[in-house]
Amino acid sequence: MINLGQHTEALKDIIDHFGNKPQILKSSEECHELIAVLDSMSSMGHDMKTERLIDEISDVLIMAEQLKMICEDLIVRNGLVVDRVQLRIDEKVQRTLERMESGYYDTANDQ
To answer: Among 56, 60, 82, 88, which is least packed by CB within 10 angstroms?
Structure first.
């Protein structure tokens, strides 16, 4: 599990320094760089340098955490303050598991 919590203050300082809009654009740039690495891996096989992949995944995760901070929107649920992004992640993971169990992703369903 990735935990960027130890960097919360540093990430807030980075957002404050550069501003919301530039960091949103930087997030897009980092996602594009990861996509380029993934595309290279699929066309070249898995001979791609692992370090480049690790760098790009790290960049995207850092920017995703900053996006969460920029768009921070907490809700009250069951008497607790819950991060909406984490709540949505939980829902999506559960939905995928349910779909797997129901056969939704089986190749027989593709016909």
So the answer is: 88
Distance CA 74, CA 70 (A): 12
Tokens of 31: 């996602």
111 pLDDT higher than 50: no
Q: Write the CA distances from 10 to 14, 30, 65, 105, integer angstroms.
A: 6, 19, 11, 41
Query: pTM for the whole thing?
Result: 0.79
- β-partners of residue 80 are 77
